[in-house]
Amino acid sequence: MGLRKDFLWGGAIAANQVEGAWDVDGKGLSVADVATYKPKVDVKDYRKQVGVTTADIDAAIKTKDTADYPKRRGIDFYHRYPEDIELFHKMGFKILRLSIAWTRIFPTGEEPEPNQAGLAYYKAVFAKMHAVNIEPIVTLSHYEMPLALATKYNGWADRRVIDLFVRFCQACFTAFKDDVKYWLTFNEIDSVTRHPFTSAGIIPDQTENLLQTEYQAFHHQFVASALVTKACHATIPGSQVGCMLTKLTDYPNSSDPRDVLASFNKNTMNYFPADVQVFGEYPALVLNYFKEQGIEITMAPDDLAILKANTVDFVSFSYYMSMVSSYDDSNLTLTTGNTVVGGKNPHLETTDWGWTVDPVGLRISLLQLYDRYHKPLMIVENGMGAKDKLTTDHHVHDDYRIKYFKEHFEQMIQAVDAGVDLLGYTSWAPIDLVSASTSQMSKRYGFIYVDEDDLGHGSLNRYKKDSFTWYQKVIQTNGADL
Ligand code: BG6
Q1: pLDDT tens for residues 425-473?
Q2: Is the pLDDT of residue 48 over 70?
Q3: I need a labelling partner for 104 at 20 to 30 A (CA). Which of 68, 258, 359, 404 fits?
């Protein structure tokens, strides 16, 4: 069988991790602009270490420094996008996933009119993409909401942010209705409880009942996602809107039924935001969890009807690794993963950053998601962060990366052969960029090497790694030659 003929091969990036130009052309400060360089994240203290405090924000607002705030400088995609898109084109990309920085369009989130310079910038980026036949898939919120909405409203904790977000999205739909057909609402929407600030603008040390607030923020994002889906369909006929989940595939640590139950519960909570966006209602098991935890969601009278009437067209997800769960955490060896800490599977190798490498887990994830949702799927992030070495003649021999992708593609194709409807695959990331969690450049994901170190030194020149030519061949043969 193999992949569909029009399979959407490509790569994925996010504005705050590539653009730089953090204070250019009217852009406002985003939550990403206050994230500092954190090279040493300790497993035991993960959530706290990647989090942000009021003191951190106050210090960040006062400085124009970019050395310690790497997302402010990114890889200068803002100015170098023509060159980068040409390179993606050379690899044969059919699609590029990128995000629109809310703060380029509405710098504080509350301006009466959109910033024309911001709209013009993305218009030019999309024009360049279309000139080389690359279809955009746009994430509307990828860890980069206006900082002003975090400090003023505690981010998505406040219902008023729904309207502000819908207004931003509507401005994008109106401006880009001829340019963009595929849209994603919230990147890794499930991450609100792991990264309340990055994901939802919630400032933990100003929040009384954090758990309650996080679930309230989820609810606001669900309503916003439904309203935005409706607006997108109304403005752009034929458009496709997807949800985006971090697929945190979890296995039982052993066949002890208590471990199986613990793992089931982990997966249930991971699926929950996508469940709401796909089925248009809260799952009974999650409502019961709310009851047990004393979580009470405040809803407006129409909210449930809005959710039910505006579900997503497809399900997209990131997949990097799997973890194991036990009824008793002392049975586990912990390791870090994609925005999580969890039990390490002894059968799997890990990357330099402790993330397990589990290609079969990708196949399992595809089967699970398709079986659950019966909707077309898209893999919109998958890849490995590694310490690459640039040779003196500007090569990177990244056979480890080729191996990683090859093994994942083999499993992906087997899932498709088993009946999964898969629309496309965008690697994270096709070009080296600033890491979301640690803000490192040295955690490299790309097929393209960017000459920039963790402190921002370097020529910013782009060099093709060995994996560049390999991925080009994979796309050319639609996955037949791995
Ligand atoms: C996902 C995010 O969680 O993982 C990306 O959507 C991120 O923004 C990617 O970059 C890899 O994580 P990290 O922390 O290694 O950059």
Answers
A1: 999 999 999 999 899 999 999 999 999 999 999 999 999 999 999 999 9
A2: no
A3: 68
User: Which CATH superfamily includes the segment(s) 8-476?
Assistant: Glycosidases (3.20.20.80)
How many Å lie between the centroid of ligand 1 and the Cα of residue 176? 26
Task: Report which ligand 1 atom has the smallest distance to the Cα of 191.
Answer: 3
Residue whose CA lies nearest to ligand 1 atom number 15: 435
| Residue 428 CB less than 6 A away from ligand 1 | yes
User: How does strand 182-186 pair with strand 240-246?
Assistant: parallel
Indicate whether 46 pLDDT > 80: no
User: Contact at 8 Å (CB) between 30 and 103?
Assistant: yes
- pLDDT reported for residue 47: 65
199 lines ligand 1 (CB under 6 A): no
Q: What angle do CA 282, 283, 284 make, to 5 degrees?
A: 115
Does residue 437's CB lie within 6 angstroms of at least one atom of ligand 1?
yes
Q: Which of 11, 10, 15 minimizes the C-alpha distance to 436?
A: 15
Q: Which atom of ligand 1 is nearest to the CA of 435?
A: 16
Q: Which of 209, 211, 181 is nearest to 97 (CA)?
A: 181
* Contact predicate 447/29, CB 8 Å: no
Listed residue (414, 424, 429) closest to 467, CA to CA: 429
Domains of the chain, by residue range, sit at: 8-476
Q: What is the pLDDT of residues 190-231, one digit of tens each?
A: 999 998 999 999 999 999 999 999 999 999 999 999 999 999
The finding on whether 432 has its CB within 6 A of some atom of ligand 1 is no
Residue 14 Cβ inside 6 Å of ligand 1? The answer reads: yes
480: preceding bond cis by omega (within 30 degrees): no
